[in-house]
Design goal:
The protein is elongated and about 70 Å long. Helix 1 (10-17) crosses helix 2 and helix 4 (148-161) packs across helix 5 (185-199). 29% of the residues lie in helices and 20% in strands. The protein has a ten-stranded mixed sheet, covered by helices on one side. A two-stranded parallel sheet has the order 1-2. Strands 7-8 form a two-stranded antiparallel ribbon. The chain is an alpha/beta fold and 364 residues long. The protein contains ten helices and 14 strands. The two termini are 34 Å apart. The structure holds S-adenosyl-L-homocysteine (SAH) and iron/sulfur cluster. Residues 134-135, 176, 180, 209-211, 232, 234, 274, 276, 307, 309-310, 312, 353-354 line the site of S-adenosyl-L-homocysteine.
């Protein structure tokens, strides 16, 4: 049976390799090779004795860093990848140079010369069970959860592709690709710990977005190490939200906010409300005022990311008018709620929010 090394924590690597080699430092060497050097295969781990590599291979171990099978490039520099998962399946991951127009996670000054700045959008499941009416991924239904190795592997595959140097380049991660991370909570959090502890990406530059899975938000609130939190609000009251996000019937807005209130925030940390603007549905000034009222009621600092809805085949919404988008943002700002408009990225290659659907369309 083939067994992937990529995805094992340091503790798991240690207990695995003990069976083959007693030397304490072997697990460290293996971890370094997998998570820092991003080796493609066991043969490339030249720090390990050849005999040990052979033994591991004979026992069925492979590195298992997920391969990039296909790349689609947008005119705006965004790249969408189909990345191999086990069982001949693929997941989608997106690379967005220079972020996506939303406020940066970082409070650090930009003085240090950095070579690359980018945001990687990571998938947590194949498909999604949540059934938001405006989202193309919902049309797939849920196929399966990704493993921790498959989630963290997307990130490393893309870092490797772009020859990122973590000390120098500035990379943000958003867990906003296909799937609902909080319905695959354990694997998602294992992936976060791998990315922080082994790969060396700071948790403060990671954001996870959830449609509002209350029990998972409550677990998240207890995590000593965690990304920042974004809530897909997408409507200013339960009635509209039920129509666009049926999951609201299970967990209404108040329940989601009550759970989010339990998350202990770092100084200056805010919780993001994501708000997809749907023409004729949720983009009027009345809605904006309701969002302001919600933001004031939360009891925690909020910023709003406005996302202009990205169309998809067979989805019965329309885009809002530019003027309405501007007015919505201005209204929030005027009433003291920080609000940003997220530029759509890579729409021409189906890489924008809510467009990930294992599609092989787009320019490769
Ligand atoms: N499942 C999680 C994370 C993935 S979706 C969640 O729903 O939060 C990431 C973001 O994309 C969510 O805020 C979602 O509301 C938004 N989104 C989904 N479909 C979209 C579309 N067609 N256009 C714009 N944003 C969309
Ligand atoms: Fe799933 Fe998020 Fe799409 Fe809703 S918006 S269907 S939760 S991926």
């Amino acid at each position: 049976m083939v067994q992937w090394l990529f995805g094992l924590s340091f503790e798991q690597l240690s207990s695995m390799i003990e069976r083959f080699d007693r030397a304490k430092f072997r697990a460290r060497q293996l971890g370094q090779a997998l998570y820092r050097d991003w080796v493609p295969d066991l043969e490339a781990i030249t720090t390990l004795p050849a005999a040990l590599r052979t033994k591991l291979t004979e026992a069925g171990y492979i590195v298992g860093l997920p391969p990039i099978l296909q790349t689609f490039r947008s005119v705006d520099g965004t790249e969408r990848y189909l990345i191999g998962a086990s069982g001949d399946q693929t997941v989608e991951t997106v690379w967005m140079p220079e972020g996506d127009g939303a406020e940066d996670n970082d409070d650090e000054a930009d003085a240090a010369p950095t070579r690359k700045r980018a945001t990687i959008c990571v998938s947590s499941q194949i498909g999604c069970a949540v059934n938001c009416q405006f989202c193309l991924t919902a049309k797939l239904g849920i196929e399966r959860n990704l493993t921790a190795g498959e989630i963290a592997g997307q990130v490393v595959a893309v870092l490797r592709q772009h020859q990122v140097e973590l000390g120098r380049d500035r990379i943000n991660l958003v867990f906003m690709g296909m799937g609902e991370p909080f319905l695959n909570y354990d694997a998602f959090m294992d992936a976060v710990r791998l990315l922080v502890n082994e790969v060396g990406l700071p948790a403060s530059r990671m954001t996870v977005s959830t449609s509002g899975i209350v029990p998972a938000i409550e677990r998240f609130a207890q995590e000593p190490l965690r990304p920042r939190l974004a809530l897909s609000l997408n409507a200013s009251n339960n009635e509209v939200r039920e129509a666009v996000m049926p999951i609201t019937r299970k967990w209404p807005i108040e329940a989601v906010l009550e759970a989010a209130r339990k998350v202990p925030l770092a100084p200056r940390e805010k919780i993001t409300f994501e708000y997809v603007l749907l023409g004729g549905v949720n983009e009027s000034l009345v809605h904006a005022d309701e969002v302001v009222a919600l933001a004031r009621r939360t009891g925690f600092p909020v910023k709003v990311n406005l996302i202009v809805w990205n169309p998809g085949p067979g989805i019965p919404y329309r885009q809002p008018e530019d003027e309405d988008v501007q007015q919505f943002q201005q209204r929030l700002i005027a009433r003291g709620v920080p609000a940003f408009i997220r530029r759509p990225r890579g729409r021409d290659i189906y890489a924008a929010c809510g467009q990930l659907k294992k599609t092989t369309e787009g320019n490769s």
